[in-house]
Amino acid sequence: MKALAGSLILIVVFFCGFAEAQQSGAPAGNVIPLSISETIDRALKYNLRMIVSEQETRVSRAARLRALSDLLPRVTAGITETIQQINLAAFGFGGFPGSPSVVGPFSVFDARARYSQSLVDFELRHKLNEASEKLNASNYSQQDVREVVVLIAADLYLEAVAASSRVDAGRAQVRTGQAVYDRAVNLKDSGVVPGIDVLRAQVQLQAQQQRVLAAENELAKR
Prior knowledge:
Blueprint lengths: L1 H12 L4 H7 L11 H11 L1 H22 L4 E14 L14 E15 L5 H68 L5 H27 L1
Antiparallel strand pairs: 1-2
Helix pairs in contact: 1-5, 3-5, 4-5, 5-6
């Protein structure tokens, strides 16, 4: 699970110029804005575990077809050609005036077709059932991997969106804190409030700035 999450982090975060890099062989360097559906599609397309799962399903499907082919009728055909010469003297014919002792060459064609089928073979049927169950298991495993990939990709995307919202909210609080601090300074200069109010507003502003900085760092990591 951790390895899968790590692969998805690389997929979701470092998609910048991926399509262009595949075509040109070098990273394009520009950022591609992605919707959540596009993020999930790319995760399903490029995640290593998903690719391996699809290959395993193809192998299982091929194994089942191979096991099924052993139970199906088999028809084989072949044609051969032989060029022969016959020595008539070897068969007791010879000495005829005007006739050669060797006849030929002449061609002999042989065309044959064979049909075979296993009527009752429990071993082959057992292998077919085994291959069918392995294919079902592989399909379920692929569906499970797909669900995990979608879940993690969507979770990472929503976490990045939430981090961006926290940054925006923090910056709004900083602007509010800056306005409160400026007002406190003006009131202090006018002699309306004591200096402690200015100090309090300054401390609150700096705390909000620190929270924004932490939120920006978190967003960068997302």
